[in-house]
Write a structure and sequence with these properties.
The complex is a heterodimer. By secondary structure, chain A is of the alpha+beta class. Chain A has 13 helices and 12 strands. Chain B has a single domain, classed as P-loop containing nucleotide triphosphate hydrolases (Rossmann fold, 3-Layer(aba) Sandwich), CATH 3.40.50.300. The chains are: A alpha+beta, B alpha/beta. Bound molecules: adenosine-5'-triphosphate (ATP) and magnesium ion (MG).
């Protein structure tokens, strides 16, 4: 009766009692516990902050790209090494991408808008005031493709792109620098040795894709060609009619240019998709490696947990012996000490998470232009880290406690 | 009922073997009151530790209430300690951070008894040992005699069939010592087997049977020993 009543089915501790017991045991030794909590806080906090920084940076860049419009293809002169195929022959220079190439591309069936671009830097002057600014040569369609907005006037007039009208659209910041708060529309400014009439002022979207749209002057592409004395385009922006048309458009662009460039594939076509994927990959790798470095502090925290628990076990030998004497099994002792280390690391992780949240919010106040955000899965990571390190680094001390011989632990010798 | 047969316990101290128990045979009827006496180092504590399943013999068998407990695994032995054996120590071994109440409640907590049932059982036990107004006190706020009473309350809260006490009065002054002995004897009257190690001949005389140990052996028989 006894064998089947008590020995075979011993009742075990209630979860709440385990937690209460562990909590009281853990808090009995303040100094060391605080030190350990600090280590865990720093560990989890830095991991969460780094993950969030990396994730926010990734999101920021991707948002920037997405604002370009998702059906965009970018045509660059020169073959990209990453597209495969045989490497270019020694000394071969890629053929220029010309305005005629752009015109040919605009006749593609799946092509919506198209904007050839020439870029360069040039001195801009108005009555003795001179500023070095980015000069973009393009066409009227750039306005739609780049989602530009005007605060005054109008954009480049549509029409034959090979007409070099002497008009320009200027960024808001550049306008302030050159004209102050006075009117600019209809005034003339000088780019290099040519005169252009201001017909429009951009509103301020800030920085887009690394170009400061505040300090920019946009002129007709043909005017830029003669200004920079170059027929070669910097790039061509092509908008596909819809996202399903992106791939056919890419193929037809390559085909068209190959035909025009005597069978040479000497351009690179970048699709939004490919760029996003690449950036995603780069930022994930970056985040991971920075997080890995931060994780070292977690290992330090884990070792401190182990240290605190080992000291606790040797300080509480008599208590462990007593628990065994009144009927605690090896498994129960193991569970109690694991609960204690897990509790400690969980509390540390919770504090670390709060600290991370606060510091990210603080950084958000300090740098409002950079949208910082707690990575959505970081609480899960913090909890997982806490449980894993609490258990992993608690196993050895808990095992030591469980294996303690009660007679020896209770003896005073 | 307790039956020890051919119990041997050898400790290795460096290269040297120390025979703490040599061919110990001993029997105790349910409800008996036995004092184990003998010079220091004769093996009294070693014997009590074997009886309390705090230590395993190197050979020999131990039967408790019809179960061959020396053959049980660790978990089952823990259950026996929990339900059948109450241990009282010379140095009390109360958990210093826990109140008298929580110390007494420990075995109930370990075995998963519900809080409200714990409350009634522990309160009753504390009242029985005259500790009701000390329930919230921590061990360092109690006198030696009170600490030992808390320890006895804890040892008996599970209604064990055997109480093992290793010099329970060894750390107490004369009057608290007698008080503690009387409490243990009262529990013995209620039917619990009491086996007590003591140095004090006065204490020893209070028992119904004395077992004398010398150099790891049970030596002859003292008073009323019904032998094997
Ligand atoms: N864990 C141990 N390791 C080594 N030797 C031990 C151990 N435990 C007991 N001994 C030895 O076994 C012998 C018996 O010890 P035990 O503690 O049982 O004696 P005792 O009769 O209780 O003595 P005392 O009256 O001083 O408490 C002693 O020689 C002691 O040194
Ligand atoms: Mg002893």
């Amino acid at each position: 009766m006894f064998k089947h009543g008590i020995v075979v089915f011993p009742k075990s501790m209630r979860l709440r009692d385990i937690l209460t017991f562990s909590l009281r045991a853990a808090t009995a030794n303040r100094g060391r516990v605080l030190l350990m909590l600090l280590a865990m806080t720093i560990g989890v906090g830095s991991v969460v902050v780094f993950i969030s920084l990396g994730d926010s940076a990734r999101r920021y860049v991707i948002d920037q790209f997405s604002s370009l419009g998702t059906d965009l293809l970018i045509v660059l002169p020169g073959r990209s090494e990453t597209t495969g195929g045989p490497p270019p022959l020694l000394g071969e220079t890629p053929r220029d991408l010309t305005l005629d190439d752009a015109m040919a591309l605009s006749r593609g069936r799946t092509v919506g808008r198209i904007a050839p671009i020439i870029a360069g830097s040039a001195p801009i002057s108005v009555q003795g005031l001179e500023r070095e600014m980015l000069v973009l040569g393009s066409t009227a369609e750039l306005y739609e493709i780049r989602h530009l907005a005007l605060s005054q006037g109008s954009f480049l007039p549509p029409g034959d792109p090979s007409r070099a009208e002497a008009v320009c659209v200027i960024g808001l910041k550049g306008k302030k620098e050159l004209f102050g708060n006075g009117p600019a529309i209809g005034k003339w400014l000088r780019i290099g040795d040519r005169r252009f009439r201001v017909i429009g002022i951009l509103s301020s979207p800030g920085v887009s894709l690394g170009e400061d749209l505040g300090e920019i002057v946009i002129i007709p592409v043909a005017a830029a060609q003669s200004l920079f004395n170059a027929s070669s385009l910097f790039r061509i922006l092509v908008e596909a009619k819809n996202s399903a048309a992106i791939e056919p458009t890419r193929k037809s662009i390559l085909e068209t240019i190959r035909l025009r460039h005597e069978g040479e594939d000497d351009i690179t076509v970048i699709t939004q998709d490919a760029v996003l994927t690449t950036f995603n990959r780069i930022f994930k790798a970056l985040t991971l490696s920075v997080t890995g470095i931060a994780a070292i502090s977690l290992v330090v925290a884990g070792i401190m947990i182990m240290n605190v628990m080992l000291v606790a076990v040797s300080n509480r030998r008599a208590e462990i012996g007593l628990l065994k004497a009144i009927g605690a099994s090896r498994g129960q002792i193991l569970g109690l000490f694991l609960a204690e280390s897990t509790l400690l690391s969980t509390v540390g992780a919770a504090i670390g998470l709060i600290v991370a949240l606060l510091s990210i919010q603080l950084a958000g106040v300090l740098f409002p232009q950079f949208p910082l955000q707690l990575a959505p899965w970081s609480p899960a990571i913090a909890i997982a880290v806490a449980l894993i390190s609490g258990i992993a680094f608690g196993v050895l001390p808990a095992h030591r406690a469980a294996e303690l011989e009660p007679a020896l632990a209770l003896a005073r010798r | 009922m307790i039956q020890l047969q051919h119990i041997e316990r050898v400790f290795m101290v460096g290269e040297e073997e120390v025979h703490a128990l040599r061919d110990v045979n001993m029997a105790a009827e349910a409800g008996e009151y036995i004092a184990i006496m003998g010079p220091s180092g004769s093996g009294k504590s070693s014997l009590l530790n074997i009886l309390g399943l705090l230590d395993r013999p190197d050979s020999g068998s131990y039967e408790l209430d019809g179960t061959l407990v020396s053959n049980l695994d660790e978990k089952q032995q823990a259950a026996i300690r929990m339900h059948k054996i109450g241990f009282v120590f010379q140095f009390f071994h109360l958990v210093p951070r826990l109140s008298a109440f929580d110390n007494v409640a420990l075995p109930l907590v370990l075995s998963g008894v519900k809080p409200d049932e714990r409350q009634t059982r522990v309160s009753a036990a504390l009242a029985a040992f005259g500790l009701s107004n000390r329930a919230r006190h921590r061990p360092d706020q109690l006198s030696g005699g009170q600490r030992q009473r808390v320890a006895i309350a804890r040892a008996t809260i599970m209604q064990p069939s055997v109480i093992l006490a290793d010099e329970p009065t060894g750390n107490l002054d004369r009057s608290s010592g007698i008080e503690v002995a009387e409490i243990l004897e009262e529990l013995n009257h209620q039917g619990m087997t009491l086996i007590m190690v003591t140095h004090d001949p006065e204490m020893g005389k209070r028992s119904r049977r004395q077992v004398l140990m010398v150099d790891g052996r049970i030596e002859g028989r003292t008073r009323e020993d019904r032998g094997q």
